[in-house]
Amino acid sequence: AWSVVDVSSSSKLSSVFFTGYGTGWIVGEHGTMLRCVDAGGTWMDMTQGPRRRLISVSFVDEQRGWAVSMEGDILRTSDGGSHWASTDAQGSLAGVWFADTLLGWTWGYDGQLRKSSDGGITWSVQHSTSGCPLLGTCFLGRNRVWICGGGGTMLSSTTGGETWASSTGLSPCC
Length: 174
What we know:
With about 170 residues, the chain is an all-beta fold.
């Protein structure tokens, strides 16, 4: 059965991620960042940095994580969220995921994928063959990736995003 969890926030919340049984993160509008260490029982406000709409959060362990905003901010932490560094991706982002402490991707509303091989310090654009918004993903390890998006877009890669196979639906990407 589902139950309502009090997180003591009035912000619209966008993404939740748990690193294991106990530690979790929620992000949302106005730069909202909430953290729990008791499996979701108590949430602490950890908001800092740009007050933009955070749309996605991902951690590889309890110390190292990333969050992205719709406005193109990529935030990263290596100390469990006490401090966050920011990089501007210059695009409208929809999600972030890291396979390990070094290898990660962002994707966005501009149809672009970005890849980092240095823990999110620098990012390079990977051409996805789609100009449609990229909205949902499924990663199986470092190489197998599926991404879906606007206009019935479905992309898949077995090369960690170096090359893509695509199928696009009949709808326009607007």
